[in-house]
Amino acid sequence: MYQGLIRDWYRMDSEIRKNKNFTWREIAPKFNSYLGTHLSHFDSSHAESNTRPKVVIFWAPYGNGHKSAAEGIINDIRKKYPEIRPEDIVVKNIEDEDMILNNINEYRSIVMDKVTGLVFKNASALFPQGYDQWYRSYHGAAAKHEDLNKLQGAHDYNLSAMSGFLNEVRPSIIVSTFAHATEALALLEEKGAIPKDVPIAWTMTDYIRHPYNEFLGSKIDMTFLPHPVVEAEWKKHGKVPERKYMTAGMAVNPLFHQKLDPFEKSALRLQQKLDTSIPLVTIISGANAVGDFPAMIESIAKHHKDPIQIVAICAKNKKCFDDVTKLKATLPKHVSVKVEGFVSNLTVAAYMQSSDVFITKAGGLTSTEVLTAGTNVIFLDNNGGQERFNIELFEEYKLGLSARHAHEIGPQVVRALSEGL
Predict the structure, then answer these.
(1) How many CB atoms sit inside 10 A of residue 197's CB?
(2) Cβ(406)–Cβ(9) under 8 Å?
(3) 358 in helix, strand or coil?
(4) Weakly modelled stretches of the chain, pLDDT under 70
(5) CA distance linking residue 131 with residue 124, whole number of Å
(6) How far apart are the C-alpha atoms of 193 and 279, rounded to whole Å?
(7) Is the distance from CB of 284 to CB of 377 less than 8 angstroms?
(8) Residue 115: its pLDDT value, please?
């Protein structure tokens, strides 16, 4: 059912009806002509020249989306410009990548680093309603006063250190995958610390439709939007010149691009020692396994009366792993559970592609991966903030179901299985 809704998405909106052939896979990712314009003067004969083009990419370690977006940009540069040297884009290794991924926190004060880190890494999980209110309030205020100097995000960083770093590297283009880093870069340019002829680009990693994003997009040279739905709204509002934005999609790992036939799904299940004859539900919620996994499993067991198997990926959350392991012995016989700890992207892709229902938090990247894989999805609405913006868009276009509380998971799984099979 949901796969068909993805294919038919554009029939629902006259503004984007001309994009009838659109699929998630076709936009993931294409860091297209804009970047090429600023790298086109690359000449391999200038191998030792200081005039070689350089790309600086800023990211932040909140979730996996910002880093993955940066890596997607890097991979795209490598494909389009194989002659370019690693040092033209990279100054340090990040997970075996020889690319410059300048963690924006290197320019953050020690105090702000700890405070902001606690907020972004814990507040959304522990206090989702409060985090959601703060997130919307911050964005609302920023869009209302439209003054970069008044944005707290822009002042979270050591702007002098950032300016010094950029003056030393002398980039041809600066790309950010994190909104607050983009605020800081826009403020530096406004103050004259970044030359006007060095373009600043921002790659959005969530499907947020909010005036704040349009305000920030108006202050830089280019915004790479995640989807034509967002682009259509920017065009409708007219606050940002059209030359300053384009749809580029999300940096989806190629592992998630392949849509499998029944035989291939069965083969994947056999590899994971799972039953090929009964429904498979997978639950995953980031590296910290946010949410009450035992309660979700109990809800599924209560509402789904036929045989079913559940994979719970608890990642780095040992308490989740232990609690689900203890729960297994108490479940009715028609429910079997496999508990996983931290697993590779390859394993996540295998579960995503072989599942009948995939339950996940609604981060921009993960959401795009599961929709690209074509699996029925239930989004956990337990973080608020940007993830709730994502869910609002997905529900508006009927791309999946959502649940805010653990006890809602069972009925939603039953619904997804009955409507999707």
Answers:
(1) 7
(2) no
(3) strand
(4) 1-52, 63, 90-129, 420-421
(5) 5
(6) 57
(7) no
(8) 54
Residue 133: CA atoms inside 13 Å, Cβ hemisphere, count? 3
Check residue 121 and give its pLDDT. Answer: 53
The pLDDT value given to residue 107: 54
Q: State the pLDDT at residue 5.
A: 29
Task: Give the model's pLDDT for residue 26.
Answer: 42
Give pairs for 141-145: CB < 8 Å, separation 24+. Answer: 142/212, 142/215, 142/216, 143/210, 143/211, 143/212, 143/214, 143/215
Dihedral sign, Cα of residue 90, residue 92, residue 96, residue 102: negative
The pair of three-digit structure tokens given for residue 314, joined into one six-digit string: 């608890």
Sheet containing 280-284: give its strands across: 335-340, 308-313, 280-284, 357-361, 376-380, 401-403
What is the three-class DSSP state of 134?
A: helix
Is the pTM here over 0.85, yes or no? no
Quote the tokens at residue 342.
């931290």
- Residue 61 CA to residue 67 CA, distance in Å, equals 7
pLDDT (0 to 100) of residue 137: 76
Residues β-bridged to residue 225? 247
Q: Report angle CA 337, 338, 340 to the nearest 5 degrees.
A: 140
Q: Which of 4, 68, 30 is nearest to 374 (CA)?
A: 4
Tokens read off for 309? 């198997």
Which residue spans within 41-127 are E strands per DSSP?
Answer: 55-59, 101-103
Residue type, 104: I
Residue closest to 205 by CA, chosen among 222, 226, 232:
226
Scored b (16 or more CB within 10 A) or e, 67-99 reads: bbbbbbbbbbbeeebeebeeebbbbeebeebeb
DSSP 96: T
CA distance 156 to 110: 10
Strand-strand pairing, 55-59 and 101-103: parallel
Secondary structure string (H, E, C) spanning 189-217? HHCCCCCCCCCEEEECCCCCCCHHHHHHH
Which alpha helices (DSSP H) does 272-384 contain, by range?
A: 293-303, 318-328, 345-354, 364-373
